[in-house]
Amino acid sequence: MDSKHSILIICVIAAVTFLTRSLPFLIFPGSRKTPKYVLYLGKVLPPAIIGMLIVYSLKDTEVLLSSHGIPELVCIAVIAVLHLWKKNVLVSIGAGTVLYMFLIQQVFY
Amino acid sequence: MTQLNKHSKKIIPALKAAFPLTIPVLTGYLFLGMGFGILLGSQDKGYGLFWTLLMSLIIFAGSMQYAAVGILAAQASLVQTAIMTLLINARHLFYGLSMIEKYKDTGKKKLYLIFGLTDETYSLLSSYKVPDGIEKGWFYFFVTLLNHCYWIAGCCIGNLIGTNVSFNSDGIEFVMTALFVVLFIDQWMQAKNHLPALTGLLAAVGCLLLFGADNFIIPAMLIILVLLSIFRKPIESEKQSHGF
User: In a mutagenesis test of the B interface, which of A20, A31, A101 is the best target, namely the one with the most B β-carbons within 10 Å?
Assistant: First the structure.
Protein backbone atom coordinates (compact mmCIF):
# COMPACT_ATOMS: atom_id res chain seq x y z
CA MET A 1 0.00 0.00 0.00
CA ASP A 2 1.25 3.46 -0.89
CA SER A 3 0.55 5.21 2.41
CA LYS A 4 1.50 8.61 1.09
CA HIS A 5 -0.96 8.46 -1.79
CA SER A 6 -3.68 7.11 0.52
CA ILE A 7 -3.20 10.04 2.89
CA LEU A 8 -3.41 12.43 -0.06
CA ILE A 9 -6.64 10.78 -1.26
CA ILE A 10 -8.18 11.19 2.20
CA CYS A 11 -7.10 14.84 2.38
CA VAL A 12 -8.57 15.57 -1.07
CA ILE A 13 -11.89 13.96 -0.08
CA ALA A 14 -11.95 15.94 3.17
CA ALA A 15 -11.12 19.21 1.39
CA VAL A 16 -13.69 18.79 -1.39
CA THR A 17 -16.36 17.69 1.10
CA PHE A 18 -15.67 20.81 3.15
CA LEU A 19 -15.81 22.87 -0.04
CA THR A 20 -19.31 21.59 -0.90
CA ARG A 21 -20.44 22.45 2.62
CA SER A 22 -18.81 25.90 2.76
CA LEU A 23 -19.31 27.25 -0.76
CA PRO A 24 -22.73 28.86 -0.08
CA PHE A 25 -21.26 30.62 2.97
CA LEU A 26 -18.39 31.95 0.86
CA ILE A 27 -20.78 33.27 -1.78
CA PHE A 28 -23.13 34.84 0.78
CA PRO A 29 -20.97 35.86 3.73
CA GLY A 30 -22.70 36.72 6.98
CA SER A 31 -21.30 40.24 6.97
CA ARG A 32 -23.42 41.21 3.96
CA LYS A 33 -27.18 41.39 3.80
CA THR A 34 -28.49 38.08 2.44
CA PRO A 35 -30.47 38.51 -0.82
CA LYS A 36 -34.25 38.02 -0.46
CA TYR A 37 -34.20 35.13 -2.91
CA VAL A 38 -31.73 33.26 -0.70
CA LEU A 39 -33.83 34.00 2.39
CA TYR A 40 -36.79 32.54 0.54
CA LEU A 41 -34.77 29.43 -0.36
CA GLY A 42 -33.74 29.09 3.28
CA LYS A 43 -37.41 28.77 4.19
CA VAL A 44 -38.62 26.44 1.44
CA LEU A 45 -35.57 24.23 0.90
CA PRO A 46 -35.62 22.31 4.24
CA PRO A 47 -38.93 20.47 3.67
CA ALA A 48 -37.97 19.85 0.02
CA ILE A 49 -34.53 18.51 0.96
CA ILE A 50 -35.85 16.25 3.70
CA GLY A 51 -38.35 14.85 1.19
CA MET A 52 -35.39 14.27 -1.13
CA LEU A 53 -33.38 12.63 1.67
CA ILE A 54 -36.17 10.12 2.34
CA VAL A 55 -35.85 9.01 -1.28
CA TYR A 56 -32.03 9.17 -1.10
CA SER A 57 -31.94 6.89 1.93
CA LEU A 58 -34.12 4.36 0.08
CA LYS A 59 -32.46 4.62 -3.32
CA ASP A 60 -30.92 1.16 -3.24
CA THR A 61 -34.21 -0.62 -2.46
CA GLU A 62 -34.77 -3.36 -5.03
CA VAL A 63 -38.35 -2.62 -6.02
CA LEU A 64 -38.38 -5.26 -8.75
CA LEU A 65 -36.81 -8.03 -6.68
CA SER A 66 -37.74 -10.12 -3.63
CA SER A 67 -39.71 -7.88 -1.28
CA HIS A 68 -40.74 -5.22 -3.85
CA GLY A 69 -40.28 -2.43 -1.34
CA ILE A 70 -43.19 -3.68 0.78
CA PRO A 71 -41.29 -3.58 4.12
CA GLU A 72 -40.22 0.01 3.40
CA LEU A 73 -43.76 1.14 2.57
CA VAL A 74 -45.31 -0.67 5.54
CA CYS A 75 -42.78 0.78 7.97
CA ILE A 76 -43.08 4.33 6.65
CA ALA A 77 -46.88 4.06 7.04
CA VAL A 78 -46.49 2.75 10.59
CA ILE A 79 -44.05 5.56 11.45
CA ALA A 80 -46.42 8.17 10.03
CA VAL A 81 -49.46 6.87 11.96
CA LEU A 82 -47.47 6.50 15.19
CA HIS A 83 -45.96 9.93 14.83
CA LEU A 84 -49.25 11.70 14.13
CA TRP A 85 -50.83 9.82 17.05
CA LYS A 86 -48.15 9.83 19.78
CA LYS A 87 -46.03 12.76 18.55
CA ASN A 88 -42.95 11.17 20.13
CA VAL A 89 -39.91 11.15 17.85
CA LEU A 90 -38.07 8.31 19.59
CA VAL A 91 -41.15 6.06 19.74
CA SER A 92 -41.87 6.58 16.03
CA ILE A 93 -38.29 6.01 14.93
CA GLY A 94 -37.62 3.14 17.34
CA ALA A 95 -40.78 1.20 16.52
CA GLY A 96 -40.39 1.79 12.77
CA THR A 97 -36.78 0.59 12.75
CA VAL A 98 -37.38 -2.50 14.89
CA LEU A 99 -40.37 -3.45 12.73
CA TYR A 100 -38.25 -2.99 9.60
CA MET A 101 -35.46 -5.20 10.96
CA PHE A 102 -38.00 -7.86 11.93
CA LEU A 103 -39.65 -7.75 8.49
CA ILE A 104 -36.46 -8.06 6.44
CA GLN A 105 -34.82 -10.62 8.74
CA GLN A 106 -37.82 -12.88 9.48
CA VAL A 107 -40.55 -12.27 6.92
CA PHE A 108 -39.15 -11.00 3.59
CA TYR A 109 -35.68 -12.53 3.41
CA MET B 1 -13.44 32.59 37.03
CA THR B 2 -16.56 34.69 36.56
CA GLN B 3 -15.86 34.48 32.86
CA LEU B 4 -15.79 30.70 33.15
CA ASN B 5 -19.00 30.64 35.16
CA LYS B 6 -20.76 32.86 32.71
CA HIS B 7 -19.63 30.56 29.94
CA SER B 8 -20.63 27.31 31.58
CA LYS B 9 -24.08 28.73 32.26
CA LYS B 10 -24.56 28.85 28.52
CA ILE B 11 -22.75 25.65 27.66
CA ILE B 12 -24.31 23.03 29.95
CA PRO B 13 -27.97 23.92 29.16
CA ALA B 14 -27.14 23.90 25.45
CA LEU B 15 -25.61 20.42 25.75
CA LYS B 16 -28.62 19.19 27.73
CA ALA B 17 -31.01 20.61 25.14
CA ALA B 18 -29.05 19.17 22.23
CA PHE B 19 -28.54 15.60 23.43
CA PRO B 20 -32.12 14.22 23.32
CA LEU B 21 -32.58 15.44 19.75
CA THR B 22 -29.50 13.53 18.62
CA ILE B 23 -30.49 10.10 20.00
CA PRO B 24 -31.84 8.81 16.65
CA VAL B 25 -28.60 9.91 15.00
CA LEU B 26 -26.65 8.19 17.79
CA THR B 27 -28.26 4.88 16.84
CA GLY B 28 -27.85 5.42 13.12
CA TYR B 29 -24.27 6.68 13.18
CA LEU B 30 -23.06 3.96 15.55
CA PHE B 31 -24.26 1.23 13.24
CA LEU B 32 -23.53 2.90 9.90
CA GLY B 33 -20.12 3.90 11.28
CA MET B 34 -19.48 0.33 12.36
CA GLY B 35 -20.37 -0.83 8.87
CA PHE B 36 -17.77 1.53 7.48
CA GLY B 37 -15.12 0.53 10.04
CA ILE B 38 -15.64 -3.15 9.26
CA LEU B 39 -15.53 -2.56 5.49
CA LEU B 40 -12.35 -0.48 5.67
CA GLY B 41 -10.65 -2.97 8.00
CA SER B 42 -11.53 -5.95 5.79
CA GLN B 43 -9.59 -4.54 2.82
CA ASP B 44 -6.64 -6.84 2.17
CA LYS B 45 -4.26 -3.90 2.30
CA GLY B 46 -4.95 -3.46 5.98
CA TYR B 47 -6.45 -0.12 6.84
CA GLY B 48 -6.47 -0.19 10.61
CA LEU B 49 -7.56 2.10 13.39
CA PHE B 50 -5.32 5.01 12.36
CA TRP B 51 -7.01 5.25 8.97
CA THR B 52 -10.49 4.81 10.40
CA LEU B 53 -9.93 7.54 12.96
CA LEU B 54 -8.36 9.90 10.43
CA MET B 55 -11.20 9.51 7.94
CA SER B 56 -14.07 9.80 10.41
CA LEU B 57 -12.37 12.78 12.04
CA ILE B 58 -11.58 14.88 8.96
CA ILE B 59 -14.08 13.71 6.30
CA PHE B 60 -17.23 13.08 8.41
CA ALA B 61 -19.50 12.17 5.50
CA GLY B 62 -21.20 8.78 5.54
CA SER B 63 -21.83 7.80 1.94
CA MET B 64 -18.57 9.49 0.86
CA GLN B 65 -16.52 7.40 3.29
CA TYR B 66 -18.12 4.23 1.95
CA ALA B 67 -17.15 5.37 -1.56
CA ALA B 68 -13.66 6.21 -0.30
CA VAL B 69 -13.02 2.55 0.52
CA GLY B 70 -13.27 1.82 -3.22
CA ILE B 71 -11.20 4.86 -4.14
CA LEU B 72 -8.43 3.77 -1.77
CA ALA B 73 -8.54 0.18 -3.02
CA ALA B 74 -8.15 1.39 -6.61
CA GLN B 75 -5.56 4.03 -5.58
CA ALA B 76 -7.38 6.45 -7.88
CA SER B 77 -5.73 9.67 -8.99
CA LEU B 78 -6.30 12.82 -6.95
CA VAL B 79 -8.23 14.47 -9.80
CA GLN B 80 -10.55 11.46 -10.10
CA THR B 81 -10.96 11.51 -6.33
CA ALA B 82 -11.90 15.19 -6.33
CA ILE B 83 -14.47 14.73 -9.12
CA MET B 84 -16.09 11.72 -7.43
CA THR B 85 -16.29 13.62 -4.14
CA LEU B 86 -17.87 16.59 -5.87
CA LEU B 87 -20.51 14.40 -7.53
CA ILE B 88 -21.39 12.44 -4.39
CA ASN B 89 -21.43 15.47 -2.09
CA ALA B 90 -23.04 18.06 -4.36
CA ARG B 91 -26.21 17.85 -2.27
CA HIS B 92 -24.36 19.60 0.55
CA LEU B 93 -24.46 22.83 -1.47
CA PHE B 94 -28.16 22.97 -0.64
CA TYR B 95 -27.59 22.63 3.06
CA GLY B 96 -25.33 25.64 3.30
CA LEU B 97 -27.71 27.63 1.15
CA SER B 98 -30.52 27.17 3.64
CA MET B 99 -28.38 27.65 6.77
CA ILE B 100 -26.90 31.04 5.89
CA GLU B 101 -29.32 32.92 8.15
CA LYS B 102 -29.32 30.35 10.96
CA TYR B 103 -25.54 30.19 11.18
CA LYS B 104 -25.14 33.97 11.27
CA ASP B 105 -23.56 35.36 14.43
CA THR B 106 -22.24 32.02 15.64
CA GLY B 107 -18.69 33.41 15.87
CA LYS B 108 -15.73 31.06 15.85
CA LYS B 109 -17.98 28.02 16.03
CA LYS B 110 -19.26 28.73 12.52
CA LEU B 111 -16.33 27.02 10.80
CA TYR B 112 -16.94 23.80 12.72
CA LEU B 113 -20.72 24.02 12.13
CA ILE B 114 -20.07 24.23 8.40
CA PHE B 115 -17.56 21.37 8.50
CA GLY B 116 -20.06 19.14 10.31
CA LEU B 117 -23.09 19.85 8.12
CA THR B 118 -24.02 16.24 7.34
CA ASP B 119 -27.41 15.05 6.05
CA GLU B 120 -28.51 14.25 9.59
CA THR B 121 -27.17 17.36 11.32
CA TYR B 122 -28.79 19.47 8.63
CA SER B 123 -32.13 17.69 8.99
CA LEU B 124 -32.16 18.15 12.76
CA LEU B 125 -31.09 21.78 12.76
CA SER B 126 -33.43 22.82 9.95
CA SER B 127 -36.39 21.11 11.66
CA TYR B 128 -36.01 22.08 15.31
CA LYS B 129 -36.11 25.57 16.74
CA VAL B 130 -33.53 26.55 19.33
CA PRO B 131 -35.28 25.98 22.71
CA ASP B 132 -36.18 29.09 24.74
CA GLY B 133 -33.36 30.44 26.86
CA ILE B 134 -30.70 28.39 25.05
CA GLU B 135 -27.89 30.14 23.22
CA LYS B 136 -28.17 29.40 19.49
CA GLY B 137 -24.47 29.01 18.68
CA TRP B 138 -23.79 26.50 21.46
CA PHE B 139 -26.96 24.55 20.69
CA TYR B 140 -25.97 24.14 17.04
CA PHE B 141 -22.41 23.38 18.12
CA PHE B 142 -23.40 20.53 20.42
CA VAL B 143 -25.80 18.92 17.96
CA THR B 144 -22.94 18.92 15.44
CA LEU B 145 -20.27 17.80 17.93
CA LEU B 146 -22.38 14.98 19.41
CA ASN B 147 -23.16 13.66 15.95
CA HIS B 148 -19.46 13.84 15.04
CA CYS B 149 -18.54 11.91 18.21
CA TYR B 150 -21.13 9.19 17.50
CA TRP B 151 -19.75 8.82 13.99
CA ILE B 152 -16.10 8.57 15.11
CA ALA B 153 -17.05 6.08 17.84
CA GLY B 154 -19.08 3.92 15.45
CA CYS B 155 -16.33 3.84 12.80
CA CYS B 156 -13.61 2.95 15.32
CA ILE B 157 -15.68 0.29 17.12
CA GLY B 158 -16.44 -1.32 13.78
CA ASN B 159 -12.80 -1.31 12.77
CA LEU B 160 -11.73 -2.84 16.10
CA ILE B 161 -14.26 -5.67 16.26
CA GLY B 162 -14.03 -6.37 12.53
CA THR B 163 -16.12 -9.26 11.29
CA ASN B 164 -16.16 -11.02 14.68
CA VAL B 165 -19.55 -9.56 15.52
CA SER B 166 -22.45 -12.00 15.28
CA PHE B 167 -25.39 -9.67 16.02
CA ASN B 168 -27.69 -9.56 13.02
CA SER B 169 -28.04 -5.83 12.42
CA ASP B 170 -29.55 -6.12 8.92
CA GLY B 171 -31.99 -3.28 8.41
CA ILE B 172 -30.65 -1.01 11.17
CA GLU B 173 -29.80 1.55 8.48
CA PHE B 174 -33.55 2.16 8.21
CA VAL B 175 -33.20 4.32 11.34
CA MET B 176 -32.02 7.15 9.05
CA THR B 177 -35.05 6.80 6.76
CA ALA B 178 -37.24 6.77 9.88
CA LEU B 179 -35.59 9.98 11.12
CA PHE B 180 -36.14 11.72 7.78
CA VAL B 181 -39.79 10.56 7.67
CA VAL B 182 -40.46 11.89 11.17
CA LEU B 183 -38.81 15.24 10.43
CA PHE B 184 -40.70 15.43 7.14
CA ILE B 185 -44.00 14.96 9.01
CA ASP B 186 -43.01 17.58 11.62
CA GLN B 187 -42.19 20.09 8.90
CA TRP B 188 -45.37 19.18 7.05
CA MET B 189 -47.52 19.89 10.13
CA GLN B 190 -45.83 23.25 10.70
CA ALA B 191 -46.05 24.41 7.09
CA LYS B 192 -48.97 26.38 5.68
CA ASN B 193 -47.96 25.53 2.15
CA HIS B 194 -47.05 21.94 1.24
CA LEU B 195 -45.69 22.71 -2.20
CA PRO B 196 -41.99 22.73 -1.12
CA ALA B 197 -42.28 19.35 0.64
CA LEU B 198 -44.15 17.79 -2.29
CA THR B 199 -41.69 19.26 -4.78
CA GLY B 200 -38.73 17.65 -2.99
CA LEU B 201 -40.39 14.27 -2.65
CA LEU B 202 -41.79 14.04 -6.18
CA ALA B 203 -38.73 15.48 -7.95
CA ALA B 204 -36.55 12.92 -6.16
CA VAL B 205 -38.86 10.00 -6.97
CA GLY B 206 -39.16 11.10 -10.60
CA CYS B 207 -35.41 11.50 -11.05
CA LEU B 208 -34.69 8.20 -9.30
CA LEU B 209 -36.95 6.42 -11.80
CA LEU B 210 -35.44 8.30 -14.76
CA PHE B 211 -31.74 8.38 -13.91
CA GLY B 212 -31.24 5.47 -11.50
CA ALA B 213 -29.85 5.31 -7.97
CA ASP B 214 -26.33 6.50 -8.77
CA ASN B 215 -27.16 9.57 -10.84
CA PHE B 216 -30.44 11.02 -9.64
CA ILE B 217 -29.45 13.44 -6.90
CA ILE B 218 -28.01 16.28 -9.00
CA PRO B 219 -30.89 16.42 -11.54
CA ALA B 220 -33.31 16.21 -8.60
CA MET B 221 -31.61 19.19 -6.94
CA LEU B 222 -31.76 21.24 -10.12
CA ILE B 223 -35.45 20.48 -10.65
CA ILE B 224 -36.24 21.36 -7.02
CA LEU B 225 -34.39 24.66 -7.39
CA VAL B 226 -36.14 25.53 -10.66
CA LEU B 227 -39.63 24.59 -9.41
CA LEU B 228 -39.25 26.43 -6.12
CA SER B 229 -38.09 29.50 -8.05
CA ILE B 230 -41.08 29.29 -10.41
CA PHE B 231 -43.52 28.85 -7.51
CA ARG B 232 -41.97 31.65 -5.46
CA LYS B 233 -44.83 34.09 -6.00
CA PRO B 234 -47.72 31.78 -5.07
CA ILE B 235 -45.80 30.31 -2.11
CA GLU B 236 -44.79 33.70 -0.71
CA SER B 237 -48.19 35.34 -1.26
CA GLU B 238 -49.90 32.45 0.49
CA LYS B 239 -47.50 32.82 3.40
CA GLN B 240 -48.36 36.49 3.69
CA SER B 241 -52.09 35.90 3.52
CA HIS B 242 -51.69 33.57 6.50
CA GLY B 243 -50.07 36.30 8.48
CA PHE B 244 -46.41 35.52 7.85
Answer: A20
Q: Are residues A52 and A11 in the same domain?
A: no
Domain assignment present for residue A59? The answer is yes
Pair B184, A57: CB distance under 8 Å: no
Chain A residues inside the 8 Å CB shell of B72: 6, 9-10
Sign of CA dihedral B130, B132, B138, B144: negative
A6-48 per-position pLDDT tens digit: 999 999 999 999 999 999 999 998 777 888 998 899 899 999 9
**pLDDT, tens digit, 9 for 90 and up, residues B89-114:** 999 999 999 999 899 989 899 999 99
Q: Inform me whether the C-beta atom of residue A81 falls under 8 Å from chain B C-beta atoms.
A: no
A98: containing domain: 43-109
C-alpha dist (Å) from residue B101 to A20, A25, B106, B173? 18, 10, 10, 31
Question: Which residues, other chains included, contact B61 with Cβ-Cβ below 8 Å and sequence gap of 6+?
Answer: A17, B89, B118
Cα separation, B224 vs B226, whole angstroms = 6
Per the structure, how many domains does chain A have?
2
pTM for the predicted model, two decimal places: 0.87
Of all residues in chain B, the one with the smallest CA distance to A74 is B178
**Residue A38 domain-assigned (yes or no):** no
Residues of chain B in contact with residue A49, where contact means CB-CB under 8 angstroms, are 91, 94-95, 98, 122-123, 126, 200, 224
